[in-house]
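Quick one - first record:
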Amino acid sequence: MKRQTRTRAAIATAAALVAAGTVTVGVSTAGPESKSTKPTKAQIAALFDGWNAALATGDAETVADRYASDAVLLPTVSPEIRTDRAGIVDYFEHFLANKPQGKKIRTVVNVLDSNSAIDAGLYEFTLTDPETGEKREVEARYTYEYEKRGGQWLIVNHHSSVLPAAG
C-alpha cells in the first residue's frame, strides 16, 4: 500500500512539474510576441493623409477601402447614417462630385492601445460646384476611430459635422 501511495505521489508531482513548466514556457514565449508596438500620435494623424489622398482619386470604392466592413459613417452633408460598404460608397459617389480637398485645422489624437486610436478635431474642405465651378470652404468637426485589423489601419467610426457658427 505504501509503495502505491509513493508511486501515485511521484506521478502527481511529476505531472504538476510538467504542467508548471508548460505554463512557464507558454508565458515566456507569448510575452514579447504578443506585445505590439503602440503607434505614435503622428502615425495616427497621418492616416488622414491617406484618406484625403483616396478622396483625390475621385473613386468612391478607393475611399471605401479605408473603412472596415462594419464601419459607421455619420457624414457631413447627408442625414443618412451609413453602416455598410454600399452605403459608404453611395455617400462618396455624391460627395466626390464636389472634388473635395481636405486639410486639418486642429487635431487631437488619442492612442488607446496598439490596435486602436481616435483622431478628433477640425478640418476644412474646399468644394467645387460641379455645375458652376465655384469653390467654397466648409469647416467641419470630425472624429475618426481607427482599428488595426489584419495589419491594416481601418476607419471603424467616422463622424463629421459642419462647424456651428460661433455664438
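second record:
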Amino acid sequence: MNMSNEEYQKYVMAMAKSSPTAKNLVWAFCVGGGICALGQGLSTLYERWGAGQNALPLVSLTLVFVAALLTGLGVFDDIARKAGAGTLVPITGFSNAMVSPALEFQSEGRITGTGAKLFTVAGPVLAYGVFASVIYGCIYQLLR
C-alpha cells in the first residue's frame, strides 16, 4: 500500500485511541498532591518525634524507601499507570527510575546486572548535578 504523508497522518489519527486528558490531569494532581501531603505529614511527625533538623532528610529517605519497596513489589508501576505524571514527584519518580532497571537486569548477576543498571538513570543525574554544583560554587566565589 502506497500512502502519502498526509494520508498516513489521517489514518493514524483515525486509529489512535483518544486520551481522557481531564481525567488524567485530575489523577496526576491527586496522586502527586497525595505524595507531597504524605511528605509534609512525615515531616511534621518526625519533628514531633524530636528529629529537629534531621526531619527533612528522614522524609526523603522514607519516600525513597517506600517508592523503591513499592517498585520491587510491582505496585508502583500500577499506581504510575493510573496516575501518570503524578508519580513523577521528583524523589519517588527518581527512586522508581533507579530500582526498575536494577530489577529488570537482576538475572545478569549482582554486579553486572543489578549494580550496573542501578545507575543507568542515576549516573547522568549525579554527574550533571556535581558538575552544576561546581559551576555554581565557582560563580558564587567570583561574585562574593
